[in-house]
Design goal:
mainly alpha, 127 residues
Length: 127
């Protein structure tokens, strides 16, 4: 691939990294209880709202990262294997937290869907 073809993608990746960095700085400077990554995503959303679109190189970079998302799980898997004894020791609280969190997320999602359907005037198939 020629250098001119790589530059837009490198710039798009740099935008993603800068938004992540800026979000981390904002969270640290303002002592916010929100992860910097979330703030970085909101910054990126603000940029998209300002532009009124997603620039094509950024869209392609995001699609590339999503296509290869499974590679981002490798460090987490290595971490679990490295701390297998600790995970084994705290397995019950981990399982309870995962099960409870999943249950709460399902209920919250169902309530949000129900609220959105009511707000938009759409009816479910069971009504």
């Amino acid at each position: 691939m020629r250098a001119r073809g790589v530059i837009p993608y490198a710039a798009a990746f740099l935008v993603l990294v800068l938004c992540n960095w800026a979000g981390g700085r904002v969270a640290a400077l303002l002592h916010l209880p929100v992860p910097g990554t979330v703030i970085g995503i909101l910054i990126l959303l603000g940029v998209f709202a300002f532009l009124g679109r997603v620039p094509q190189p950024l869209r392609r970079m995001a699609e590339f990262l999503l296509r290869h998302l499974n590679l981002f799980y490798i460090p987490a898997g290595v971490g679990v294997m490295a701390y297998a004894a600790l995970v084994r020791q705290d397995l019950l609280p981990i399982v309870v937290a995962l099960t409870g969190g999943t249950f709460i997320a399902l209920i919250a999602g169902a309530l949000a869907f129900h609220w959105a359907a009511r707000l938009t005037g759409q009816r479910g198939s069971d009504e």
